[in-house]
Design goal:
Elements: H1 13-22, H2 34-46, E1 53-57, H3 60-71, E2 76-81, H4 85-88, H5 93-97, E3 102-106, H6 115-123, E4 134-141, H7 152-164, E5 169-173, H8 176-183, H9 187-190, E6 198-202, E7 212-216, H10 222-231, H11 239-250, H12 254-273, E8 280-281, E9 289-290, E10 292-295, H13 298-304, E11 310-312, E12 318-324, H14 331-339
Parallel strand pairs: 2-3, 2-4, 4-5, 5-6
Antiparallel strand pairs: 1-7, 6-7, 8-10, 9-12, 10-12, 11-12
Helix pairs in contact: 1-11, 2-11, 3-10, 8-12, 12-14
This protein binds pyridoxal-5'-phosphate (PLP).
The site of pyridoxal-5'-phosphate has 11 residues, from helix 3.
């Protein structure tokens, strides 16, 4: 009953097998291996973007920070949701790698920005005034940090505001596959067709060992990204092992199957929780992550039954939690957890 995060799951067998298959003989380093060429082909195919640039890193923080550093100058802004991972969970790495670009936090219910709130935040950016930071980029997370999902139309509405101000757009897709499955949209519809310029395409949480792809739709940005990545210490020498994970992940649409299962388990869990007396969800449950609030005393019972998850601060007499399902969550895990109530 591991609901702490989707990163508590093991690697999917097919991903592990791809790594074992790659573990044979010699391969050139630093991305000049045959598997990387295949990964680039697979990513381009998945995103219907024949020119896209693909680079692999081992953490989402590196993917996000290096992507943003390639999009903005130090005196510019990155607009993002108030609770974006880049704002709350990356220890200042985006500011560090951009050489100090300022995160401007946009409010919004359920982890989502609206075009109106984004426009309002942009009004606060003193464009053209030497005393203020200048407009930079927009960063959107999908699945959001609240477990909700933007549709491609919602992404496009946000990027339209950004583009009207000349700002490039980044998508933090640590749970990108879960967002696609939840909305029934394609990778292209969710990204470049909706105005996204660079994607952090997550693998780790959805069945890889540790790999994220940075997908850049404008080839002109490639060289700068490559230099920044190397300078940051994120150019893997034995790149073939990262590439192998991504290859196993993309092969035969495994990434979408794994995410579909994670989301199905999320839906099963959320449905079961509607039967629990006095329980309320903080946010609509749309993918594989939820934030239920229940009566005090429940944590002790669930922990005693062996459940693992992160508790969240809650009002007096209440308790709250974050629950995340993954590709490896079983229906039995969910049902035993529900029975523990
Ligand atoms: C997990 C996660 C990341 C990546 O985090 P790392 O620990 O750096 O791999 C990025 N964005 C979101 C929204 C996440 O949930």
């Amino acid at each position: 009953m591991f609901f702490a995060s989707d990163n508590t799951s093991a690697a999917a067998p097919a991903v592990m097998q791809a790594v074992l298959t790659a573990n044979d003989g010699y391969a050139m380093g630093y991305g000049n291996d045959a598997i990387m060429a295949e990964v680039t082909r697979l990513v381009r195919e998945a995103f219907e973007a024949p020119e896209a640039i693909v680079h692999l890193v081992s953490t989402g923080t590196a993917a996000n920070s290096l992507a943003l550093a390639t999009l903005v100058q130090p005196w510019q802004t990155v607009l993002c949701h108030r609770h974006a991972h880049i704002a709350d969970d990356e220890c200042g790495a985006p500011e560090f790698f951009t050489n100090g670009a300022k995160l401007v936090l946009v409010d919004g219910a359920h982890g989502k920005m609206l075009p109106e709130t984004l426009s309002a935040a942009l009004k606060g950016v003193a464009q053209g005034v030497v005393h203020g930071v200048q407009r930079g980029a927009l960063s959107i997370t999908n699945v959001t940090e609240a477990g909700t999902v933007y549709t491609p139309a919602e992404v496009a509405a946000l990027t339209a505001v950004a583009k009207a101000h000349g700002m490039p757009c980044h998508l933090d897709g640590a749970r990108f596959a879960n967002a696609l499955v939840a909305t029934g949209s394609t990778a292209a519809e969710m990204t470049w067709k909706a105005g996204i310029d660079v994607v952090s395409f997550g693998g780790t949480k959805n069945g890889c060992l540790g790999v994220e792809a940075v997908v850049i739709f404008d080839p002109a940005k490639d060289w700068e990204f490559q230099l920044r990545r190397k300078r940051a210490g994120h150019l893997p020498s034995k790149n073939r092992y990262l590439a192998a994970q991504m290859q196993g992940y993309l092969q035969d649409d495994l990434w979408l199957d794994l995410a579909r299962h994670a989301n199905d388990m999320g839906a099963r869990l959320a449905k079961g929780l509607t039967q629990v007396d006095g329980l309320r969800q903080w946010h609509p449950v749309q993918a594989n992550m939820m934030f239920p609030e229940w009566t005090a005393g429940t944590h002790a019972r669930l922990k005693a039954a062996g459940a693992v998850y992160y508790p969240f601060p809650a009002p007096q007499g209440r308790e709250a939690a974050r629950l995340v399902t993954s590709w490896s969550t079983t229906a039995d895990d969910v049902d035993r957890f529900l029975a523990a109530f």
